[in-house]
Amino acid sequence: MSSILNADDIKKALDAFAVADSFDHKRFFEIVGLKSKSSDDVKKVFTVLDADNSGFIEEEELKFVLKGFAKDGRDLTDKETKAFLKAADKDGDGKIGIDEFAALVKE
Fold it and tell me: Where is the signal peptide (predicted)?
């Protein structure tokens, strides 16, 4: 992940949401610098977060999304995970595809 994003920005973003139930995907993507990245870089980040390489980020993977940015990232709470999924899952299939993820990042 640090080959795509600045390590200091990753740390800042993780620190900003260290408290349970404080996660805000829009602010996170902004702080971490993903919002200003190219669509290719956004796709690379998606690939890292898609742990099982299914082409989707499922709810279980979403819970560990902060760990995808840094090993010491915390797990999202169930409430945060469901809110994140709801914000991104535009077609209602219960998972986030690459296009849904890219749209969410650029919001």
Answer: none
Distances in Å between the Cα of 73 and the Cα atoms of 17, 54, 59, 64 are 9, 23, 17, 8
The span from the CA of 54 to the CA of 31, in Å, is 27
Exposed / middle / buried, residue 15 (Cβ in 10 Å: 0-12, 13-18, 19+): exposed
Residue type at 107? E
Q: CA–CA separation, 3 vs 80, rounded Å?
A: 27
Structure tokens at 43: 């796709």
CA distances from 104 to 19, 44, 58, 65 (A): 22, 15, 15, 14
For residue 101, report the phi and psi dihedrals to the nearest 5 degrees: -65, -45
Kindly indicate the confidence band of residue 86, based on its pLDDT and cuts at 50, 70 and 90: very high
- 11-25 pLDDT, tens digit per residue, is 999 999 999 999 999
